[in-house]
Amino acid sequence: MVALDNSILNVALPSIRDQLGASESGLQWITTTYSLVLAGLLLPIAVIGDRHGRKGLLVAGLGIFGGASLLAAFTTSTGVLVAARGLMGVGGACAMPATLSIIGNIFPEHERPRAIAIWSATAGMTSAAGPIAGGILLDRFWWGSVFLVNVPLAVALIVGAAVLVPESSDDTSPKVDRRSALAWWAALTFTLYAIIEAPQQGIRSPSVLAAIAAAIVLFVLFRLQEQRTDGPLVDAETAADPRLWAGMATMGAMFLTLLGSQFVVTQWLQGPRSLSALAAGLCFVPGAVTSMTLGLLNPRLVGRWSHATIAATGLGLVAVGAAGAGLAILAESVPAAVALFALVGAGVGLAAPTGAELIMSAAPPARAGSAAGVNETIVEAAGALGVAVLGSVLAGSHSFARPLPVAALVAVSAAWFVLRLLRPQRSLG
Questions:
Q1: In whole angstroms, how large is the CA radius of gyration of the chain?
Q2: What whole-number distance in Å separates Cα of residue 422 and Cα of residue 426?
Q3: Using an 8 Å Cβ cutoff, are 45 and 373 in contact?
Q4: pTM over 0.85, yes/no
Q5: CA-wise closest residue to 60 among 95, 102, 101, 97
Q6: DSSP assignment string, 138-152
């Protein structure tokens, strides 16, 4: 449900723009506020879950998410919609890392890779399938239906979590360092503000320059605070593990490309190509199918080759798919764009379980929530950055084709980084 909400909104953006009078900048804020709040709160809330109980955090998050979705569904104001999306981010920040940290504690080490592969395949499939679900809903209902669908899901999941999910916590987990948490969230907020507003206000405008300067200072302060506090969001041993950095690079590049490209491609399909919301959503079916299939095959493929090889191969597919889709847009060919974008889904399905496993394996079980928080923070921050960066390139260039090679370059750079960091090997050890 949380992963779906990252992408289901994309096909509703033209309707929201028309009915609420939202600007291009407003659409970016509606999309990124959810990811921004989610990314900023994931790490500190995940650490709280480690210490005080992961099940309770999951149930609370589902309740907040469902209530905020109800508010978003019936609002008539862009500002209220942005605020409701922020509340949904709070709920997602509670619920999403709890799911992965619970898996990390329930399953023994030899079963965990397959459990994470199923978890990751579900998340990757729903991210890719979001436009499809949105298109089906918008073909029959108003744009608020893409949020209203979360309400019965949240209720059912609260009941399921109460009955099926075991309690787990670790009283020895450190307390959350509030200064680190605040510095991290503020740095990310200023970064996204600068990226989103630069095309409208200009890169040299005082507010954009001030945001850039503030982001740099806050990132430095966050790093310094993490080094000297007794309760870092990410402990020093985990932060020094190359698997953590390789997993972060893999997840970040993939979801920046996936969610940023979906933001651009859905507007091209419903704008210049004049497709309905349902038809535009159906264009992402091949990507969703390939993502799910390769995600489930990931453990077998990793056993034959290595995490580094699989991650780099998946990122390569993402890059080829994004760059190829950009060329298809230039050629004004919807079938070619659909086929090539399916490669993005294939790459995400292939590499996402590896990225999550690399991150989770870098932390001890007692810090499973912290590691899960890192994983989800990277996914959400990357998604928000993808929408902000590619949306800004779109707004500045007035070309639907130009943003996609930017995403491809990010994926290629990440593949190179992972290969250099891990050096292809047959096991995580």
A1: 20
A2: 11
A3: yes
A4: no
A5: 95
A6: HTTS-TTHHHHTHHH
